[in-house]
């Protein structure tokens, strides 16, 4: 299965596609879509949209993974600009009928490094190590995109393991948001009372 991670921005949008097969992760493709501040905003957004659409067609991913927007009150314009880039990426995902998944930055760092407060350098080294890269990616945007894809593969595997190893308790409902049970805890067979 191919997972496409995207780190959106108006200037440099990073992307990374990985192949997950039999617990092995390999790099399919990674790079950037770069726009110029000299271009009009609509031209820049069109370039991102067309680039992502072509990437989806070429790599045929099972899903597309984005980081949830974190906005700081001191930088509201950054969120606005990021939202525009994310919007065209979401549109490309919908048009190409590819499921869209979002994770918060701390969730991604926790899945990759084991620490939700890990530094960019720690994430970068871990991604390079996991993919067997001899050099660190030139752009942090590429590393972030690859981290999103790898994190999703780990989270999917953990969720499948949980669901396979616990029966659905009577009265528990399947969560719409997550692939897990809500309402009741699964019985613990390892406890003796």
DSSP summary: helix tally: 5
Query: How many DSSP-defined strands?
Result: 7
User: Helix-strand pattern, N to C?
Assistant: EEEHEHEHHHEE
- The portion of residues assigned to helices is 40-55%
Strand order of the largest sheet: 3-2-1-4-5
Q: Radius of gyration from the CA trace?
A: 18 Å
Instruction: Compute the number of structural domains.
Output: 2
- The assigned structural class equals alpha/beta
Q: Assign the CATH superfamily of the largest domain.
A: Ribonuclease H-like superfamily/Ribonuclease H
User: How would you describe the shape?
Assistant: globular
Alpha carbon gap, first and last residue: 43 Å
Strand content: 15-25%
The CATH architecture of the largest domain can be given as: 2-Layer Sandwich
Low-pLDDT regions: 165-193
Q: Can you tell me the CATH class of the largest domain?
A: Alpha Beta
CATH topology of the largest domain: Nucleotidyltransferase, domain 5
| Main sheet summary | 5 strands, mixed
